[in-house]
Amino acid sequence: MLRLPKFQYLTPQNINDACKILADQGPAAMIVAGGTDIYPKMKRRQFLPKTLIGLRKIDDLDRISGSAKSGLTLGASATLTEVSSHSVVQESYAGLAKAAGAVSTPILRNMGTIGGNLCLDTRCNYYDQTHHWRQAIGWCMKAPSGKGWPVLQDSKLNQSGVPCRVAPGSSRCWAVSSTDSAPMLIALGAKLKLIGSKGERVISVKDLYNDDGMFYLSKAHDEILTEIQLPPSDGIKSTYWKLRRRESFDFPVLGVAVALKQAKDGTVEHAKVVLGGIGSCPFEMAEAQNILTGKRLTENQIEAASQSVFNPARPLDNTDFHLFYRKRMAPVYLKRALTELATMGSNV
Amino acid sequence: MAKAKSEFSVIGKSLPRVDAGDKCTGRTKYADDLRLPRMVYGKILPSIHPHALIKKIDVSRAEKLPGVLGVITGRDLPIQFGIMPTSQDEHALALDRVRYVGEPVVAVAALDEETAEEALLLIDVQYEPLKAVMSLEDAINIKEPRIHDYGPEGNLHKIVSIDFGDVDGGFGEADHIREDVYFYQGNTHLPMEQHSAVASWNPSEEKMTIWSATQTPHYVHRALAKVLELPDHKIRVVAAPVGGGFGGKDDPFSHEICACKLSMLIGRPIKITLTREEVFYAHRGRHPVLMWVKTGVTKDGKITAMHFKSFLDGGAYGSYGPASIYYTGALQTVTYKIPNYRFQAIRAFTNKPACGPKRAHGTPQPRFAIERQLDRLAEDLKLDPIAIRQKNMTGPNHVTVNWLKINSNGSKECTEEVLKASGWKTKFGKLPKGKGIGFALSTYICGAGLPIYWNELPQSEVQIQVDRSGLVTAFSGAIDIGQGSNTVLASLVAEVLGLYQTDVSLVTADTDLTPIDLGTYSSRVTMMMGHAAIDAAMKVREPIFEAAAEEMDVSIEKLEARDRVIFDKENPENKLSFKDAAQLAEAKFGPIGAVGSYKPAPKIGQYKGSGVGPSPAYSFSTCVAEVDCDAETGEVKVEKIWIAHDIGRALNPLSVIGQVEGSVYMGLGEVLMEEQDFRKNLHKIPSLLDYKSLTFKEMPPVETILVETDEPNGPFGAKEAGQGPLSPVIPAVANAVYNALGIHIDEIPITPEKVLKALEEKKKGNPPRVGPKGIPSYNFPEPVKVEVPAEWKR
Ligand SMILES: Cc1cc2nc3c(=O)[nH]c(=O)nc-3n(C[C@H](O)[C@H](O)[C@H](O)COP(=O)(O)OP(=O)(O)OC[C@H]3O[C@@H](n4cnc5c(N)ncnc54)[C@H](O)[C@@H]3O)c2cc1C
Ligand code: SF4
């Protein structure tokens, strides 16, 4: 089997100590939560951190608290199983239960955390391969040598001269945001808390992401994600539809997250449509939202909103399925998601 | 030997497998579970080029890494090997040239795997890249550079061109002729267990012992003797329990030889376990085959002639290729009566991992083509798809035009049973839009009639020893790879001796301790080891019955044994326990033991290639698939599979059903998603995540119907179950998709993309089809005309 390279494992007792190690060691240190993304990547030598900082010893980081009425707070270390099976999530944030519950397999969801899921590295089938494979096909911009690189916020990396293998003329990396929960949390209007050596801040989930396959997170290296704050559910209906080859195991190659608030007469007061798995970050589909807002969820309205996501969905050939197929499926999946919500009773 | 079923005491019962307890509780020790004192670990550096000359290998930095104990290259193992006498074209480590990305180049021994992995990164190999041959078309068109310096020309490995009967005359008699082109994508075995071997050299005895996850310990033994230049008796090969093989562990492999060589070099036991990626490179999986089939039929659907061409993309080495190429043509005549038959084929070398035998070796590809075409022929002639098959089906006691002798033949019964169970009549043509149903028939051999290397020796031998405690030990070279051969062995011995299955202790697949069995391939083990076991058990029974008869004062013919008791059939009260009888026999004759053996004697035609196809018996399977297709997403959901299998006799129905369901699962993977896919000269997706095969959730319910035809050549009438039932699943699904949506997907896997593409063509008024456009223009040599059996002479 592939073996883990050598590293030092630290388990600080509180967030501040963890931030301090990150600040002191810089990119040579990385956070590990469930380890379901980072360990395979270390075995394949995409990451070669000297130090891993485990979050397990930090109290309360896995706590889920609050209510649908006041808003729910998810500790970053809560597992995907805990999130997807939580009664409030299931009842009032159904789309999130679906999205978190659609990640990979039950075994993986027992280990993988919601925080890790949001910070999940972007994916590309030229990059998510072993050291040997990447050496054979030629290194690419995101991993420009066989040495592995700590996640650097160093923009010099994409000046390494090593090309992107999917889009050889491109000056950026197009690796794909493949987290199931991020598009859904954005659609739900969630925020998250980051604690760093310079203090803490709360930002919207949407603002965590850059449209860049290499520098996909906007946060500073020493900032740790501690919690996700869901707004009061306020009668919002939500759902998540995921395109993948198989009903288990597979990453999304298109994720459609929808959250709607309807008036009593069915008029959509507020609509969020976010697509994942089609680019380097989740994308809000503004046109679809506009089409939906202020109207009822009629068949025509659903059709119009769905067709509007065909153009903005611009996948590249670096995941499973033909890219044009993924593009074609965006309207189909949105239509199915909206139809599901239209036929669903009110969620208050 | 055949008894009426009601008389069996062990056979025919769904007893738990003898190894089920250990497997379910994690006690089974697979090769990778073995740990010997002082054992170290090996890793192998793979090639990064599809085709290149090796200019220089510098291992000095790796050798200096603390913890590294030894490094070897191709120079240390210069002798070639290969599974077939005609395919001795492999080196354990590439000597001067690499032929695919992933080919082993350097092997390292170190104290642990981490260090060995580090060491690989310190090895410098200088290559001079050569033009890579990545497709069948490449192989036909690119004459130089050649991947191998043997074969008929350029990059072709083998060419076949052969005629049975008057093919042109046969087409002349046809009222209707169709030509179709199909493509069957390559795929891999995907066993749960990765290959693993532990080698231990004993310098004082100058003897090598290797424990390996192999389906063919005997052939590994021969390859090791050759490459290591050791006498046969200085090598002991033990096949550890195999965690799935499906043909992927049928060849001798680089890691086995490297482990031995490194152990000799460093004087310590060493283990090499492949990574999942390396298993994809070791491969030997399903050949991608492009096929062209021309069939002539009369108005009422009777086949008058068939011309079948297959083009096999063989990958970088010969492996079982010389057999695979013939298997793509051999069994067409076993399912249907084809009076005049021409078969032409090419196997090409390409710079990809070598293809070889995967479950139902070489036959699912042509089966896909033929069963798809029969549906089309039926439609052309406005016949029912079942009727056209029934018109042409072979029956019992039939000799095919290419000299294959069928004894029992349950295709008729299997067809009736599967149609009844699936409710075919109420469904075909009557399901709502998007839903469809499809049928297919197939056949498979029960053991290759000839051994891989020519010899006159038995192909399977069993030894039995009786202990005075009443316990019986059976020794057999056969290796259980999950198909259940250990259970078959125990149950047959128990049946003959009147014992319980659990009274039989087993020693298997150890070349020092067990007599020969050629290995687990070609569905040969139940047939051949089964006969050898019965033979040995009958011989053991003789002295025991003789002693018992004397004690019981009855004539020996009146004795019968069951439930650990030997009794007088006419007066069951007159009885003796097996244990007492065994002791009496031992007192009278000395230790009780015997050896038995089996060598098939199938009828073999007198022509080149006639060795592929003959078998003591043929199994038959029919499949009905029901699908639900989503015209918007192109997804094909298989809702249910009904499969009827002519097993001859089910020695253990539970075990047989397990094999059938496993075959269905694998067949569905091949038809729906599995692909050995290449991009930019290397395997695109060599991982369990990205190489898609069915999960639990895609697996539909399967209804298995066992049809018993009591095969005269089978042990207690049994035939094979491990491979044949895979083949009809693929065309049955493809036919069901046509039935559901009116589209032809003539290239597997049937992906959502292809379904949408075909629907689009249909909408545009084009032929509603996705599949290969044609075949490469290649002038086959004049077919060799083979004299046909008397039955087919006109
Ligand atoms: C076979 C397989 C299939 C998968 N399928 C899916 C899928 O379908 N959908 C999907 O979304 N994901 C999938 N994943 C990816 C991954 O398992 C999940 O996203 C999981 O939620 C990651 O969480 P983790 O806790 O294991 O992360 P880890 O591996 O521990 O960490 C992931 C990354 O996040 C960083 N990180 C973790 N926690 C924090 C924190 N609190 N603050 C700052 N940074 C942090 C780590 O440094 C690392 O870079 C799959 C993985 C595998 C191996
Ligand atoms: S998108 Fe380009 S740069 Fe980014 S990982 Fe893929 S090949 Fe590398």
How does this structure look, described?
- The complex is a heterodimer of chains A (348) and B (794).
- Chain A has 348 residues and is α+β, with helices and mostly antiparallel strands.
- Chain A folds into three domains: 49 residues, 2-Layer Sandwich (Uridine Diphospho-n-acetylenolpyruvylglucosamine Reductase, domain 2); 110 residues, Uridine Diphospho-n-acetylenolpyruvylglucosamine Reductase, domain 3 (2-Layer Sandwich), CATH 3.30.465.10; 106 residues, Enolase-like, domain 1.
- In chain A, 29% of the residues lie in helices and 19% in strands.
- Chain A has twelve helices and twelve strands.
- A five-stranded antiparallel beta sheet of chain A has the order 4-5-8-6-7.
- Chain A is globular and about 60 Å long.
- Chain B folds into three domains: 165 residues, Aldehyde oxidase/xanthine dehydrogenase, molybdopterin binding domain (Aldehyde Oxidoreductase, domain 4, 2-Layer Sandwich); 184 residues, Alpha-Beta Complex (Aldehyde Oxidoreductase, domain 3); 358 residues, Aldehyde oxidase/xanthine dehydrogenase, molybdopterin binding domain (Aldehyde Oxidoreductase, domain 4).
- Chain B is 27% helix and 25% strand.
- In chain B, strand 23 and strand 24 form a beta hairpin.
- The mean pLDDT of chain B is 97.
- At the A-B interface, helix 8 and helix 12 of A face helix 3, strand 29 and helix 20 of B.
- The structure holds flavin-adenine dinucleotide (FAD) and iron/sulfur cluster.
- Iron/sulfur cluster (SF4) binds next to loops of chain A.
Q: What's the CATH topology label of the largest domain in chain B?
A: Aldehyde Oxidoreductase, domain 4
CATH class of the largest domain in chain A, anyone?
Alpha Beta
Can you tell me the residue ranges of chain B where pLDDT is under 50 for at least 5 consecutive residues? none
Shape of chain A: globular
The biggest beta sheet of chain A is recorded as: 5 strands, antiparallel
Could you tell me the number of beta strands of chain B?
34
Estimate the global geometry of chain B from the Cα principal axes: globular
The CATH architecture assignment of the largest domain in chain B turns out to be 2-Layer Sandwich
Order of helices and strands of chain A: EHEHEEEHHHHHHHEEEEEEEHHH
* Second rung of CATH, namely the architecture of the largest domain in chain A: 2-Layer Sandwich
**Overall helicity of chain B:** 25-40%
Low-confidence stretches of chain A: none
Provide the β-strand percentage band of chain A.
15-25%
- Tell me the Rg of chain A in angstroms: 20 Å
- What is the count of structural domains of chain A? 3
Q: Approximately how much beta-strand content do the residues of chain B carry?
A: 25-35%
Superfamily at the CATH H level of the largest domain in chain B? Aldehyde oxidase/xanthine dehydrogenase, molybdopterin binding domain
